[in-house]
């Protein structure tokens, strides 16, 4: 796991985002336990409170569950929930792209053309 102290994204969000991606891609599967809060805080050299906040965020999204005395267990992911999570990530990324395009004074047509070009390039990779 990598965190960036210089990122605009809060550290707890960076942690949650990385675990969310690993869970939704199946890298971490249902029934697996996440590292203990203290262990992760020690490894990343961050506050236990920061780690706890990221775990609470994942728990509120239904991705993990706290198990008394054992830690945080990855929940079974149903395909509809996974689809919704991925759609949310796409919407967030596209919103960010729109904001960046606006700042760069890029027209809507140019932005759409750029997206189409990237989609076409994906077909050949």
Helix-strand string: HHHEEHH
Question: What is the CA-based Rg, rounded?
Answer: 18 Å
Q: So how many helices?
A: 5
Going across the biggest sheet, name each strand in turn: 1-2
Q: Main beta sheet, described?
A: 2 strands, antiparallel
Structural class: mainly alpha
Our estimate of the beta-strand percent is 5-15%
Query: Which stretches of 5+ consecutive residues score pLDDT under 50?
Result: none
> Averaged pLDDT, please?
91
How many E-type strands? Answer: 2
Helix percent reads: 55-70%
Describe the structure.
The chain has 125 residues and is mainly alpha-helical. The protein has helices spanning 11-24, 37-44, 48-60, 79-103, 108-123; strands spanning 64-67, 71-74. Strands 1-2 form a two-stranded antiparallel sheet. The chain starts with 10 loop residues before the first helix and ends with a helix. Helix 1 crosses helix 3 and helix 2 (37-44) crosses helix 3. It is built from five helices and two strands; from the N terminus they run αααββαα. The model has no long low-confidence stretch (mean pLDDT 91).
């Amino acid at each position: 796991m990598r965190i960036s102290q210089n990122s605009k994204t809060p550290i707890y969000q960076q942690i949650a985002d990385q675990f969310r991606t690993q869970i939704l891609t199946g890298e971490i599967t249902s029934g697996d336990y996440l590292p203990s809060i203290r262990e992760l805080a020690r490894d990343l050299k961050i506050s236990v409170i920061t780690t706890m906040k990221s775990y609470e965020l994942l728990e509120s999204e239904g991705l993990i569950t706290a198990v008394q005395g054992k830690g945080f267990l990855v929940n079974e992911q149903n395909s509809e929930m996974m689809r919704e999570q991925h759609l949310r990530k796409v919407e967030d990324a596209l919103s960010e792209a729109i904001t960046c395009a606006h700042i760069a004074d890029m027209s809507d047509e140019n932005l759409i053309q750029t997206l189409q070009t990237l989609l076409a390039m994906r077909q050949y990779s």
